[in-house]
Amino acid sequence: MSLVLIVFGAALVSLAMFNKVPQFVPGRAPAPRTGGGVATAQRAATPPRLRLVDARLTEQGRAVFTAIGGSALIIAFFLALSGL
Question: What angle do CA 71, 9, 83 make, to 5 degrees?
Fold first, then answer.
């Protein structure tokens, strides 16, 4: 339980600190080959990836994420001390 709270709290606090969230960018399929001459350039396929984009949080939103994430980290700390 404490590990789940640590991951949850760390994610919220890092979101508030860096104001970035991951965004999925789908890959691009390779262009189909048509007839083709000798020197035709082919577009390479790109794999799907994640990129970081702005979260556009307000100061109040950052404060909420910091408070909830910090509280989750404190609860995880005390749960770990108690042995649960």
Answer: 75
> Does residue 36 sit within a domain?
no
Task: Examine residue 67 and state whether it is found in any structural domain, yes or no.
Answer: yes
Look at residue 53 and tell me if it is in a domain. yes
Q: Encode pLDDT of 8-49 as tens digits.
A: 999 999 999 999 999 998 888 776 666 655 555 556 778 889
Token representation of residue 3: 């590990």
Q: Which residues contact 62 (CB under 8 A, 6 or more apart)?
A: 16, 19
Position 38 scores a pLDDT of: 58
- pLDDT for position 14: 95
Tokens of residue 51, six digits: 């990129």
Burial classification of residue 77, based on how many CB atoms lie within 10 Å of its CB (0-12 exposed, 13-18 middle, 19 or more buried) = middle
Domain that holds residue 73: 1-23+49-84
What would the two tokens of residue 80 be?
């770990």
